Structure formats: C-alpha cells, structure tokens
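Residues determine shape. We examine one folded chain.
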Amino acid sequence: MGTKSSIKPLKPSLKEQIRYITFKIDSNKEIKDFSNVNKAILNHISKFIGELGMAKAGPALIRNKWKPKEQAGMIKVNRRYVDHIKSSLSLIKTINNQRVIVKSIATSGMINKAGKSIGG
C-alpha cells in the first residue's frame, strides 16, 4: 500500500523575506581577495549583533557579485536586520590590516535591481 506524500510549497507570506544590500569599500589599495572581505565583514557583523543576531539575520556575502575593480559587493540578509547590517558595515575600519571605509549603497528585495547599483 503506497502512500503518496507530497510536500506542499510554503505560502509567500510564510517565506523568509530577504533583502540585498550593496556596499562599496573605499581604501588606498585595491582589495582583490574575496575571502578577506568576507571574513572581515562577517566578523564585524558578529561583534555588532552577536551570535543570536547572526543566526536570525542570516547574512551572506554573494561571491559572484564581488567586483574587485569597483571594490563593491552584495550581502543577502533577512529584511528585519537590514539596519543592523548597515550599521555594522559602517563600523568596519580595517580589512586585512588595511584602513578602509565601507559604505552601503542600496537595498533591494530583488538581486538584479540591487546589482544595477554596482554595475552587475
């Protein structure tokens, strides 16, 4: 007797609502390595909002949106924590022992629309 179990898709109102924050890094030297940027940003976010906040916000840098020439990238985050993430970005002073200023450029619910602000 085979029972057919089908999982119903989530209603749109129950799905996690995501925002994409684009950012730009101002520095004297170009930072080419994505992993250094990723580690520095996630460490600063963790210091600012803590481990529980990190779990709820779910920040993730999008690797294929990192533009080393423009020093710009994109972070995916839960919509309720957009302001927390923007605040923590503004507090970053160094990446890989290099003085930097990180600015948030735009926020959008669509990755393509957010990508237009960094040329991608």
The chain is about 30% helix and 25% strand. The chain has a mean pLDDT of 89. The domain at 18-118 is CATH 3.30.70.3250 (Alpha-Beta Plaits). The first strand starts at residue 18 and ends at 27.
